[in-house]
Structure formats: structure tokens, C-alpha cells
Design brief:
Chain lengths: 316, 214
Amino acid sequence: MAELLASGGSMEMVRAAFDNGADAVYVGATGWSRRRAEFEMDDAAIVEAQRYARSAGKILRVAFNTLPASSEVPLFMARTDALYAAGVRDFILTDPGLMMALKNRHPDTILHASVGCTIINIQDALFYKEAGASQVVAECRMGKATMRRIKAEAGVGLEVLVHATTCYTLLGRCTMSSYTKYGHRVDATGKDHFPGSPNRGGLCYRICLTDWDQVGATGEIEASGVELPNRAYFLADDIPYLIDHGVDTIKIQGREYSVPLVGRMVRFYRDLIDACVRDRAGFRMDPWRGRMARIVADRDAERSEKTAGLISESLG
Amino acid sequence: MGVLRMLREKGGPVPAHMGAYANVYTHLAAGVMRDAGAVRVRPNAEVSLDEMTILAREAGVEVEVLVHGKIPLGVTDRCFLLTEPEETDPKCPSACGEVHWLTSRQWVLKTVGKGVLSGRDMCLLEHLPRLVADGFRVFRVEGLYETAAYRSEIGAVYREALGRAFAGGSFALEKRWADVVRRHAPRGLCNGYSFGTAGRTYVGTVLQDANSDI
């Protein structure tokens, strides 16, 4: 049975996600996950979230999925040591070196390779398995044939994002934002949040989503209003397929969305998955489309507002 | 990463060099690549020179530094210069060999269809003595999607400048070097993330005037 994993951008969101039927929730350690600090959690909040998860018999995963500086590795070890001592065992990482280091230090931790690893084929999946990951997140563009092959041959868990965005570039392989604006903000623990770099600190100014002109060698405009597509998606039709093929985790991304919206998304997917599992042969997608369209419209409105804010912030 | 793994499975028939998209940011990641058979890594573009110095020292693997050329900013799986599939679009394969910029506000990028490069040319010419002193020995002039003249002229400038930097003593930028570099950088110069700043900025005292607004 596939696990439903949802986002926890705040304690309130963690509760809403679990209460609406998530089997697991991920949160980001402040300064160490692919979102800005307001959607991350300090250690006290992580421990509280962990307690809530445990009391409900569910799982909390902690993301340390940015790519730090070499000099920050001791900070990573100290912080994961503290969380380990508080009972956290589930971590989401990107850097294969950090994966190996954490697994060697605490062999009973459970490590998942983040979407930032850009895993697009079975060889990539095997690489991260060897680095210590027991589960890998499929890049948003991964096709079904590759998913099937990883499930059949790689011997590693597979996680698929059903609510996320397909970046213009391969996710995790883009520095367009930090090319335009990039700074340093060192917090009290000594961790740099690298604002402007999604890979390093999580704050992406989404400059791909502004209006671009394509200009030729001599300065002539070849096309105006060129779109560098970066679309949010909401997959529902594929859910039965994912369940049939034994995908281990169905993930809802969205720490930066409002708590009520995340709650509705989690409830939608919970109900859909349960209905599908209850009566696989009789399952039809059509009755779900109206409810889904309302969620997608609200999601798109929240996203557009956020994107406009980020682009204007990048100009400041 | 998958390709590196395949090479190892075949007994490491070629010495592997990891490119910028291998996303090496830490010495620990570089160490994993080394143990998997890589003999050289080029850290991600965002890694500063200070960070690269630590990475090279701690990882025990050769580090390649991009000293000049367009910075890779993004890679994707579909060619955005084409309107039809690659097999049928008459613009393929010539479109990515032509010059196409993407401009918006004060930003300029270069598109090569499946990749986005910086609009400005990365240039570390005036900083070569520091790179040599820091212990770097492998320097890359990025010639991808550039003309033969770009490669040969910029390459010759760096060959001469590096010779002088390695000889020690005083190092002043020759005017003819600066002229070549400027001539080949229609959208201006930057030195990327080398000094911890946004990629499009130029840190230095000699060529910053070539850093045009657009």
C-alpha cells in the first residue's frame, strides 16, 4: 500500500496534514531544506512534530536536502546528531557525501534521496542506493517505463510527486535565480541560507516565470513574451497506475501554500487513494474532477501571487 | 551519476571527469565521486573559490576551475528553440549553433535550446595569480557554442596569462588581452559566483567597466 506523504511547512500544517489522512509528513530543518526559513522548523518544533506523528502512529521525515558548503559539514553532523538523540530516524538528503556520512555514523537512520538529486534513470537510482538511500524521489519528468524498471530491478523504494512543479530546467540543475540575485544570511547556528539559490538555501526568485524576449545576434527581437515553462501540476489520473505498480510513496509538495489548502489537497488524495484501493475494478476518475478543479484553481491563485512577489523581490 | 556508475561497472575504462551538473558542492560529495572512479571534478558553478580551495584540499581529487566563458545555468530535456520534434523541425540542428539571447529587465541569458547559459562571459583573467597561489592547476575556458575564433583567441590569452602567473612576480593585465576578452563578450563580463556574489556580478578592478547593464 503506497504511503501518502505531505508537506509540513509549519506545526499547524503538520497537524492538518496528519489529521487529513497523511501517512507521513516531511518538514525542513531551518537553513537546510529547499524553502526559505519561514517554511522550515527549528529543532524544538521538529521534536514536537515528531511527537505528534508518533502519537498518531505515523512518520515524520526531516529534510536536509540543500547542498551546503564544505565548511558547514560539521554543522550538519551536530544538528542531525541532536535530532537523532531526540528520536528522529527519517531524513531526506541530496548530497551523496552527507548521505554516506550520516549512514556511517547512525546506521539505523532511514535516508531518502531528494528530488534535488535529479534521478532520471535506474543507474542514478542505484548510485544513490549505494550512497545509503533506501528510497529515491523520481525526477518530475520520469516516464512510467523508467519507474517500472526501478521498481522491478533497483531494489530501492520509489517516491513520486503528484503535486509539485515541473521546473523549466531539470529540478536541482538550475542556477538562473542566483545568477541574478544571490546573498548570504548566516543564522545563529552558523548556517548560511544562501538566499537566491534553490539548491543551497531554497529561496528561488523564479525568474524563469518573468516575460522574456528572444533576441538574435544583431539585437533583433525574434520573439516577444517567450515562456520558460515552469508549471505546477496536480496528478490524479495516474494514481491507480502508481498504486498498481507498487510505488512506495505518493508525495504532495507544498510547504509554501496555505494550511487550509494543503489540508484539502491531503484529504483529496487520501479519499482518492482509499476509493481506488477499496474497489480497484470499479474505480472511475470522473466523479473526482470537479473537486480537483476547485483545489487546482485555488492552488494556482496562491502560486501566482507568490511568484509575482518573488520576482519583484529579485529586483530589489 | 548514473554514467559514472556504468563506467565503474565496466571496470573504469576511461578516467571520468565530473561536469558542473554533477552538483558537487562539498568535499564529501567529491570524495564519493572519487571513490566511484572520478579523477577530476568541476564543482557546481555556485561554489566559490574559497569553498573550492577547501574542497580540493579535503577531497584529494583534482578540481577544475572555470576561468572564462559562459556559465551553465540550467539544463533541460526538451529543445526550446524548436517548435516541432527534433527529427522533423528544419531548424534542428542549426538553431543551437546560432546566437539567441533571452532578455528581461536588466537580465540577459543565452539559450542554446536545451540549456541556459549566462549572458555575460565569466572572466577570471585578473585573478589568475590568486588561483595559482591557491593551488589550482586545471583551468577551463568554456568553448561550448562559441566560434573557433573565440576558442583560439581567448585560449591564447589565457595560455600567455597563466604562463606569467605561474612565473610569479608582478602580474599586470595586458591591454591586448583585455581587448580580446571584451571583443568576444558582447553582453559584458562577470566572474560568476567566484567571490560569493550573484553570478552576473564582476568583482575586480580592471575589467568591471565591460560589465554593461544589458
